Amino acid sequence: MAQAAVQPHNEPRVVLSARGLTKIFGAFAAVKDVDLDVRHAQVHALIGPNGAGKTTVFNLLTKFLQPSAGSINLLGTDITRTAPDKVARMGLVRSFQISAVFPHLTVLDNVRVALQRPNHLATQFWLPMASLNRLNERAEELLSAVGLSNERNALAADLSYGRKRVLEIATTLALDPKVLLLDEPMAGMGQEDIGNVSSIIREVAKQRAVLMVEHNLSVVADICHHVTVLQRGEILAEGDYATVSQDPRVRTAYMGTEEA
User: Fold this and answer.
1) 192 found inside a domain
2) 3-state class (DSSP) for residue 11
3) Contact 238, 244 (CB under 8 A)
4) What is the H or E stretch that residue 213 is in?
5) CA angle, residues 125, 127, 131, in degrees to nearest 5
6) Distance in angstroms (rounded) separating the CA atoms of residues 212 and 83
7) Per-residue pLDDT averaged across 105-118, rounded?
8) Domain tally for the chain?
9) One domain for residues 84 and 194
10) Nearest to 31 by CA among 19, 15, 13, 16
11) Which residues in the chain belong to E strands, given as ranges?
């Protein structure tokens, strides 16, 4: 198994790492011997063609799947055999490709619901609704941070698709993640929403690590500090975007005629 590399003094600390990460389904290796280092205050992209193993890596890191081999370390703790709910409470939080908000609650109430767990209110059903008012200030801060203050009283169902994804980021941030995993955050968005969400992710990453699966290479080039390219479950190349985009293997396997 590969050993963790010595971290240069001028680089941000590694907060999430994997060594020799492998997942085998029957005779098929969906992920094979993947090493990954995600650093604080950086955006790290996981890219590759369909079927490359990106979502499987996400599921392994967040413990939705158990690895067949290898190890995962979060904030200095081995989480290889840790349950997914405990991993989330430790600060590793993910979003999904499909927006997950409560459509018949207001934007503000969606965030207040998300804030209940870190404020130890999630299981205290006997408390009056007014007890949630203490969450309002933090909820308003989160909505302001993602540019949703003007829609605080709108139903989530009435938001555009892009704004729903922004609300999902706000509810994810309510859990105060140390490492945020975003699964195709730009999927299905128009150019205006892409620019808005890119700015939000860039701002979010000033205080935490972000690992994202993303197919929009313009976004990857714009906001990502480090890129890992997967092909058939293995790492094909890694480095900054300028480096990987010039790799002929990456161009052949993934980028095709895409301009670097």
Assistant:
1) yes
2) coil
3) yes
4) strand 209-213
5) 120
6) 22
7) 86
8) 2
9) yes
10) 19
11) 14-25, 28-39, 43-47, 69-74, 77-78, 92-94, 179-183, 209-213, 226-231, 234-239
Q: How far apart are CA 83 and CA 159, in angstroms?
A: 34
Q: Domain residues for 150?
A: 101-168
Among 147, 168, 189, identify where a domain stops: 168
Give Cα 224 distance to the centre of its chain: 12
Q: What are phi and psi of 114, to 5 degrees?
A: -65, -30
Helix (H, G, I), strand (E, B) or coil at 12: coil
Cα–Cα nearest to 121, from 138, 97, 141: 138
Say which amino acid occupies 195. Answer: G
Say which residues have a Cβ less than 8 Å from residue 42's Cβ, sequence separation at least 6.
12, 205, 209, 210, 225, 226
pLDDT tens digit sequence for 47-95: 998 889 999 999 999 999 999 999 999 999 999 999 999 999 999 999 8
Tokens for 217? 């290479």
Q: Are 69 and 197 in contact (CB under 8 A)?
A: no
Number of helices followed by number of strands (H, E) in the chain: 9, 10
Angle at which helix 161-173 crosses helix 191-204, to 10 degrees, equals 10
Contact 122, 182 (CB under 8 A): no
Between CA 138 and CA 162 the distance in angstroms is 23
| Angle 26-29-31 from CA coordinates, rounded to 5° | 135
Q: For residue 44, what are its two tokens?
A: 């790290």
Measure the CA–CA gap between 166 and 162, rounded to whole angstroms: 6
Give phi and psi for 170, each to the nearest 5.
-60, -45
User: pLDDT per residue over 224-235, tens digit each?
Assistant: 999 999 999 999
- DSSP class of residue 154 equals S
**Claim to verify: residue 242 and residue 185 sit in the same structural domain:** yes
Q: Rounded distance, CA 114 to CA 196, Å?
A: 22
pTM given for the model: 0.86
